[in-house]
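In this section we walk through a basic example: taking a raw amino acid sequence and producing a predicted 3D structure, encoded as discrete structure tokens. The instruction is simple. Fold the sequence below.
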Amino acid sequence: MKKLESSLTNMVLVLTGVAVVMGGILAYVNHLTEGPIAQQKEKALADGIKTVMVCDDLVVSKTDTVRQNDAKGKEHTYIIYQIQDAQQQDLGAAVESTTGGFGGDLKVLVGFDTEGKILGYTLLEHAETPGLGAKADKWFQKGGKGDIIGKDPKEPLTVSKDGGQVDAITASTITSRAFLLAVNNAYNAYKVTPVDAQTGATKQQ
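The resulting token sequence is shown next.
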């Protein structure tokens, strides 16, 4: 009986030791990868801003954080990057906007000119079905079937199925609605005066 108790104690001690060691290893690996992951996200954002503003030589002159409630009263946060060219002329803004898609959150970066017309967009994050909802990265681009480039969302963009003028992605109406909602919300956030703003100028390399 004592031998059995001793074996159980040893097993518990060994398992505890393994768990502690593994936890330490995971924490160390996480620490090592934190920096590169952050740099990767920063680069993806910088490249995304250039893409949606259709300009390589630009400066983020100001960064605003805007919080707004949707129709259901849920608060959403939008990050607005005010953009200038090399001659410090205002080009408009790139706006981060997130909504719930078919498979999860759909985060979009949308570029607007100074009049509020859409210059471009890119998907920063999504969990949509490959081959269906994931087509949003191309579907609404210039020349695509649901082309929204150059449109002014002053009148909210909606899919043709809902009486709008934008063709939804085939078999992915939910994703299309979520995408257009993200764009409409981004426009609304861009058009309001931010209350709490963090500012700074960043040259995009």
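Looking at the output, two observations stand out. Residues 194-205 have pLDDT under 50 and may be disordered. Residues 2-53 form the longest helix (52 residues). In the next section we compare this with other chains.
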